[in-house]
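SEQUENCE-TO-STRUCTURE ENTRY
===========================
Question of interest: how does this chain fold, as expressed in backbone structure tokens?
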Amino acid sequence: MAAITMKASFPLLMLLGIALLACVSSRSDQENPFIFESNRFQTLFENENGHIRLLQKFDQRSKIFENLQNYRLLEYKSKPHTIFLPQQTDADFILVVLSGKAILTVLKPDDRNSFNLERGDTIKLPAGTVAYLVNQDDDEDLRVLVLAIPINRPGQLQSFLLSGNQNQPSILSRFSKNILQASFNTDYEEIEKVLLEGHEKETQQRRSLRDKRQQSQEEDVIAKLSRRQIEELSKNAKSSSEKSVSSEFGPFNLRSRNPIYSNKFGKFFEVTPEKNPQLQNLDILVNSVEIKEGSLLLPHYNSRAIVIVTVNEGNGDFELVGQRNENQQERRKEDDEEEKQGEEEINKQVQNYKAKLSQGDVFVIPAGHPVAIRASSNLNLLGFGINAENNQRNFLAGEEDNVISQIHRPVKDLAFPGSAQEVDRLLENQKQSYFANAQPRQREGGSHETRDRLSSILDAF
């Protein structure tokens, strides 16, 4: 990493902090609090038809994610011709299809709606909504990402199955016999046979089958379907492209809209709370970013939004600028005041956090933290932005929407090591906006003094 150059002299403590910068930057990605590798997902349910996985709590990594303690990330994956059986959860869901084709059925007390979903389709499921999800494709696995916002307890969500199994009984089975008999106006034996676990003999057979399969998780959460059953479920299902689909309740597709940023190096699709009523009351934005191999999403930061990004496809890396020691949890209370003050001074220094990216990895971009993302293969990212209303994305490089270019020339003279003229000349080198070639253009000619001068300007960034 390049050395940091400043006009003013440093206090001794600040110099010590900068000397430590190289050591901190060389640490492993595991100490980077902004990256959650795919192995940080915990498997909640799994059988031969698919799985449901839950990412660890964000605030377990760093105190900087305290405002994310009530947000959880779930991944649903199922094989062709399967169904996630009906359930409801005490959390609001923002559901996005990453790959595959699905039929989502949403139940209401007096109605039901079915939707054909494909890659990029997004829909909000309010807390308590009973729904079931079908992979209707003949060949491709269905992959769905869900941002969950729990209602009852911060960061903890609970799903309730309408149909029970050995590990998690049906919610109906926990009512007393008298309540069930009065509610359904029939004998308990009939209720047990039709809605609950069935006769004791059948229960023992299922238990024996589970023992043979050596499954510790739920077997009945994801089940197999026949082609005829899928055809029946697909009747009257609507697609996000149909005009009759309500923007307040139906799915919308991220990729069907014009990208907000686009050139030959990448595309940036985004739906904000101001443009969609489903996202408005949750104050969440959703975006999809495509970066071509060998390209770069230029350095930028979000003014308000904390963005949770998942790598859907491809490989790359990101660099994020944050304060030092953001990977540390709360310090011990017994530290003496003088030591705390010294640590706080060092923490005011910024450092570069780097990590490699591959499919299934998650990283978090806090508000105000500059970030750049580079693709080593075609890279597709999906992001959820928290505190999204009135968020502004400020770019630090590029021809358009570059906040540095808006600084008055006299202020540029004061703020940067180079002159205002040199700063302007440097900014004009980049003819692309938002996305660019990740390989820097090599300038020919020019004195060493000029190159050193320009280099010092970059160091200030």
